[in-house]
Amino acid sequence: MTAATLGRPTIPGRPARRRPAGAGGRFGGYLTMTLATVVLGLPLLWMFLASLKTPEELYRLPLQWLPGAPSLDNYAQAASAVPLGQLLANSVGLTVAGAGLKVALGLCCAYALVFLDFPFKKVAFGLVIATLMIPPQITIIPNYTLVAGLGWLNTYQGILVPGLASAFGTFLFRQHFLTLPASILEAAELDGAGHWRKLWRFVVPMSTPTLAAVALVSVVTEWNDYLWPFLVVDDPTKMTLPVGLTLLQNTDGMTNWGVLLAATVVVTLPILLVFLVLQRRLVAGLTAGAVTG
Amino acid sequence: MTPRAPEASGAPPTGATAPRPPEKHPHRSRLGARRRRRALLWALLLAGPNVALLLVFVYWPLLQSLYLSTLQWNLGSPAARFVGLGNYVEWFTAPTTGRIVTTTVVFTVATVGGAMALGLGLALLLNRRLRGRGVARTVAFAPYVLSGFAVGILWLFMFDPRYGLIQELLGWLGVASPQWYTDRPWPLVMVTVVYLWKNLGYVALIYLAGLQAIPQDLKDAAALDGASSSRTLRAVVLPLLTPTTFFLLVTMLLSSLQSFDIIKAMTSGGPLGSTTTLMYSIYEESFVNGRAGYASAVATVLFLVLLAVTAVQMRFVQRKVHYA
């Protein structure tokens, strides 16, 4: 039914303003969309449900869909196997510090690149932009040696500092600053505002959408970052959540799904909530590359 | 006083060419030199930290990595021997290299091709004025923001051959679950599916933006000419989406070639190396086998591949970016 209506050519002469498909095509659209949503959303739902099930409910055939009496036992068990509270605190702390510093570095750097005249400005800009093309993988071994040499293994600064420099953020801020009306800044200058004041009183308030986008993208990448913190830290009290998940996977093995999935919920839920609440801004930041090319 | 100004501005050739707002104030020359000095100070203060971090943690390691690739050197060992291109020769002739390259190509083609095709389909669906499409879009995009490692763990449970959801769904269709964890090629299939799931929403959203940028009159004109919707898609919509397709192709290629977290969580490159990609082998050689010199050579190979992809992009983007 759907195929027939979809394939039917529109009657020529009548200016059909879209909708080549009738009710049948519409029904097909809804059906496909519902199916796609269920298929894409089911794994996350399944994770939440599983984290609330008892082992007997998890290992029962045929599968039990809903937990009989939802309990947080798995979460308690995960917290006793790895220092879950500490991991959460580490992740939150490192994400806030990392994203905050990244935004600040990008903001200041872009300000200098757009509003200041200084020698080798183009070189500086080229250095920043070219970083976008250097995959982090090639820097990992030397950076690891460097961080180990500094005695920074198993430290917060070891996790944080090597990834701090902002290339993407600087780029986005620069793009935005170039669109700001020059007249306002000139007026500010005539009023005797210095660069510091111009940056915080004029440029920052006019850049809130970009600020939000860069901050949110940084939060997501810092939170999810895995390879680097995994290499630098093997002390459980210094781990971030995704790395702690590895620890749990290794100690508890594959058999204890409820506990492992409870920890997985702890890793994913905060970012999922950030995404649901600030979706528009976050998506704008994550897809910004497509617009800028 | 006056001779100082040209001297100061003559030194930096880059600063003079920058088309910044011209200063048309009367006492230009005297203030100019001071202003320039102050600007330089501010530039050092504002741009300095970021540029310094890039130099120390990106550019310096990049050069070091190229150097390390010429050494026979184990991670943490004080002894290193210069072997020239020996590591590269070893990589090109190693018996495992063929398998790793094949795995990388299969994984990359399947993930990039799959994400592009499914993402376009999803975008076409979400571009229709269906109620609830906002919810569908949110659900589709959500996996993209989640930790790759966590997503890997969650799907490992989905794929569990005895108690996973997938064996249950296959059971409904009367199909016995494959041994996802152990029997080739299923581990690679598994990792590919998860990568697709995680990135599909991103591709769909970018395609959706591309679709919404296509002027309605073009589609109306096609409809007026009696074109069927499938023909409109082929003859009008897809050609106009070429820049988007190209952008996504490159972005997905780069990200797929660098994927690590999902593979680490689900298979650790196994069983028997059947999910070891180029990227994964760098990690394995350096941090599991400790062969940091050799791993640096492999990293350089990957770097060159990525650079080639980027170079192709830059050539094409200039030609194809303008449309409609």
UniProtKB/TrEMBL annotation, chain A:
Where does this one sit in the cell? Cell membrane
Q: Name one Pfam family in it.
A: BPD_transp_1
What does the UniProt keyword field contain? Cell membrane, Membrane, Transmembrane, Transmembrane helix, Transport
- The answer to whether UniProt assigns keyword Ligase to this entry is no
Q: Report the transmembrane regions from the record.
A: 27-49, 92-116, 123-144, 156-173, 199-220, 257-278
What superkingdom does the record give?
A: Bacteria
Give the matching PROSITE patterns: ABC_TM1
Q: Sorted alphabetically, which CDD domains does this protein's record hold?
A: TM_PBP2
Question: Where in the numbering of this chain does the ABC transmembrane type-1 domain appear?
Answer: 88-278
What kind of membrane protein is this, topologically? Multi-pass membrane protein
Q: Where do the segments described as Disordered lie?
A: 1-20
Q: InterPro entries, alphabetically? A: MetI-like, MetI-like_sf
Q: Which family does it belong to?
A: Belongs to the binding-protein-dependent transport system permease family.
Tell me what this protein is called: Glycerol-3-phosphate ABC transporter permease
The upper taxonomy is: Bacteria, Bacillati, Actinomycetota, Actinomycetes, Micrococcales
